[in-house]
Amino acid sequence: MNSFAIIKTPLADESCLTLCEDDYYEVWNYFSDIVKRRVWRALPAGIETPASPPKYFHPDIIISSSNELHTYNTDVRGRLDDVKENALPLFCNMLGKQINKESITLYPSSTQAILSILISKKQKGVRNIIFEAPCYFGGIYQAVFLEMKIHILLTSQDEQYEAGVDSIARLNSVDAPYVLMLTEPKFGIGTRRSIPRLKELLERLPANSTVIIDEAPDLSWGPRKEYWDALSVYKGDLYRIRGLTKGLALNGVKISILHHSEEVKSALSSTHDTISGSLDAYSLQYLRKIAVAMEEYSDMARSAVNAVKKNHMLLQSLITNRSIKLSKIEAGYFGLIKIDLGEDGDFQPKRWAFLRFAKEGRLPLVTGESLYVPCDLRHEWVRINYFLPESEIIETAMALNEIVTRYQEEFYTKLS
Q1: How far is CA 30 from CA 351, 366, 398, in A?
Q2: Dihedrals phi, psi of 30, to nearest 5 degrees
Q3: 324-326/334-340 β-pairing
Q4: In this predicted model, what pLDDT tens digit does every residue of 258-292 receive, in sequence order?
Q5: Which of 108, 145, 144, 148 is nearest to 124 (CA)?
Q6: Which of 3, 35, 193, 237 has minimal CB crowding within 10 Å?
């Protein structure tokens, strides 16, 4: 494991939470034969199966001239001002407030937007970054490559996995200036942040800090006055990242929207050409089309939210083993399933026994360790994609009931 510094909220400290190693590739390789032969019973994480909401916007995309293919479409030196001007009403509805085009920078992906921010901050001498766990692995890998000092802030399920004002002293034990990386909704879980709690936190952070809020999968639409009021109390540099279609699982459209103060535009532009590259012609055309079809976009968003809620309720209704609990889902389309492995015995043998039964049940899993979910050495977390077809949701529930029951009867009872 990389040597990350660990910070804990008071509740995480009381719960004796720890950080388990991100072993995504080891776990996925464990299931790789099932995936390669395509003999899975279900794929809860939706990695190899189409997973998307029931309603799409499919505009006819026509490349009308060779200039569209020749042009280098990076959002620097005003190159995309006309695109952003036309799409401004769309961006305002997505971000929940009237904004101007100078406070928007377009990137091919949220990951590239994060990297651009981190490079610009390191160039200004920022060396420390704090990730509120659970968190996005991509940002952590980027900070590793940039040789930043990485701090993982462990949070508790009892506080909805979000830090509050009671964690300020612990956050400020990190040498300022620092970057604090937050997610909305909570990464991999799908719960909304408490706005009063967020406001209290932002109000107390040092003015020379930087906050990045990764909102990539969010589908909120229209005015969000309370959220903006909370953000407005923060005195440092604030960045919000929103995927154009990430929340709809339409990953072939590669545009992310970075909202920032106008003052940081030049610093971002200095790294943009180096790390971002050109937006592709198809994605720009999609943006142009959807900017004049906002009703279709909002319909897609509503359809997606309803599909997620429906599948969450379906999965919940089919879970019969009491050791299986679902996280609530309020936004985004990924959630977590909590598996109680029992209080007796060491965690890793129990965990791998559970994964062995999952493999025998042909149910490849993505586990919470790869999402940096704080670990209590008793529970395993499993990722679930709620855009899966209904048949996959049903098979996931049936398989998990059987696998956890087998684990309990054939492995765990022998520990006591």
Answers
A1: 13, 11, 21
A2: -60, -35
A3: antiparallel
A4: 999 999 988 888 887 778 778 888 899 999 999 99
A5: 148
A6: 3
d(CA 32, CA 401): 22
What is the Cβ-side half-sphere exposure of residue 330, based on CA atoms within 13 angstroms? Answer: 10
Whether the bond between 185 and the residue before it is cis, its omega within 30 degrees of 0, is yes
Sheet order of strands, 104-107 included? 5-8, 149-154, 128-132, 178-183, 210-214, 237-243, 256-259, 104-107
| Nearest in space to 126 (alpha carbons), one of 241, 282, 19, 239 | 239
Distance CA 120, CA 125 (A): 9
55 — pLDDT class (breaks 50, 70, 90): low
Residue 110, token pair as written in the block: 């949220």
- In the chain, the domains with their CATH numbers are 13-53+297-414 (3.90.1150.10), 67-294 (3.40.640.10)
- What the block records as the tokens of 145 is 């490559």
How large is the greatest C-alpha to C-alpha distance in the chain, in angstroms? 72
178: part of which helix (H) or strand (E)? strand 178-183
Tokens 């359809």 belong to which residue?
303
pLDDT tens, residue by residue, 358-376: 999 999 999 999 999 999 9
